[in-house]
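User: Fold this, then the next.

Assistant: Folding the first:
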Amino acid sequence: MDNRKINSYGIVGSIYANYIIQSIALIVIMQFSQDLTKQLNTDLLGLGYVASGIGIGKIFLMFAGGILSDKFGRKLFIYLGMVCYAIFFIGMTFCTNIHIAFCLAIAVGAGNSFLDTGSMPALTECFPRSAGSASVLIKAFISIGTLILPFIVTFFNTNEIWYGWAFLGFTAYLVINGLILFPQNFPNKDTAIKGNGGTENYFKAKPKFVFEGILLILMGFTTTATFVIILQWLPTIAINGVNMSDLEAKQLISYYSTASIISVFVTAFIVKNLLKPIFCIIILPLLSAIVLMLFYFNISPMMCVIAAIGMGFTAAGGVLQLTLVVMQQLFPTRKGIAVGCMYTFSGLSFIVIPLIVPKLAMYDVSYAILIDFFIALASVILGSIVLYRFKQVIDMTKI
């Protein structure tokens, strides 16, 4: 029996703090584009090449990170993620070669993979009775990072401060958080999500990874693609579909982001007190599908605003994280590989969607809405099948 004292709040606090820096690392290259183009002696196209390394590191290491996290534990992979980010920030500060910069961007993707495969299972292991709320709240801290970075960039540019101090400051942030996390003892990596009364024995039969596991992994793609399409294409739809001004169209993303942040806290409350995650992963995509269908039949300025708020609330408020919680409920000893598989397919949506949607939108921007509707509907269908299997293998009165 493990008698080590475990401070779950201390561990989770450090994990959430890491997600602020993770979201900053993902967009910092383009935010400091003027400084970095000069330093690397390139243009925005070259900087885009550098930034593409992030996706490569993320896609190719997520699955391996999940398998190894299940084998070696969560703390190691959280630290590996932090080290990768530190390498990027320090390296990029002094890098002058675009190809080395590309390799440093791959380190960001690797850090993203390692941090996710260590942190997401650790959250459910620290709070097995409220895994849904703990997982969904990550979205709020990701939003904090993307919210504060533009202010940091503006401050540095306005006061003509060398951008490298920001990068070194982010590194110092990681070091401090690493020192805070170091003495913490993590829960056993096989800790299962607990149901009512604190029971872990809520199974009636053995779940099948090759069936419901694969369906949930596919939902990693569909739940992400649903909000990616709106995030990337709503301004274009508004400009080309209803002649909205460029400024007004970009403002829609602010409505979307605000709604997604509010949704995080509402969803966390709902899964804690009212509905199990298995029901939320059907209801939220269904609401997204309804919003998209209304939008398709009435593309107007007002409906663009409603769609931005509606999709931010229903599609971007933590559906992916709740889908992951359901997967971890079904496969409590394979939580790392669950994160690896699901987040790999989630990452694929960022590659596949830009290849498909622009070709459809060339004919008619409304096709982007229609394809999003069918993807959201696919989530509802997949989730409904998973619910059927969920009820067969899990005693619903015990979770």
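Now the next one, as you asked:
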Amino acid sequence: MKFLTPRSLFAAASMALFVAGAAHAAPAALVHNIVLVHGAFVNGAGWKPVYDILVKDGYHVSVAQHPLTSFEEDVTAVKRILAMQDGPTILVGHSYGGAVISDAGTDSHVAGLVYIAAHALDIGETEAENGKKFPNATKAVKKTPDGFLYLDPAFYPADFAADLPKEQAEFEAHAQSLTSASVFTTAATNAAWKTKPSWYAVAKSDRIINPDLERMYAKRANAHTIEVDGASHAVYESHPKEVAALIEQAAAHALDGQ
């Protein structure tokens, strides 16, 4: 029979304590709060499929309802929601909402940014000018006499929401949130993606924002990027599992290295 010396007993005990400690090591820090920001022509209700997944998975989720009346007012509305959060927050923007989170994302609550088929403007850029460099496929944009834009309902299903059920897309076409034309020509004054970690979902069949423009934004921001096959501009509604998974990835890793 082999007897252990006091030294070997101490070594064995130390190794056992180390293994036990490793098994019970604290998990990586997770961001608990998520704020979802909608884009032009829609409201926050479209986030419900993603919201439901995130809430089921234990996150505290808020949906900003900004007015689409001016860029400044939209940013202010989102910052109002950020001020209500009790700690680090993942800020998510779809479409024009990406421009909003790029500005509001400088807020101290924001730990990371997630862009869903969204504009990630640099300082001095506008959506309109970037759209000229990477033209989209839609001709549906119409303007009211008082300067608000909307999408022609006859083209909305095919151009905005081709991968949603027909009845849902047609309802959304007639329930649009008209958007001040000024938001598309307002130059960005902040670019939070330069200082905050970013994630990006490219909608590969997007007709509202050119997918190549989305790829440019993602590459420039050094974002963790996924591409969603067959996804229309309404990717956050039609592919909620993929979008929610990307947001949860951001929540799991935004605090890495801090």
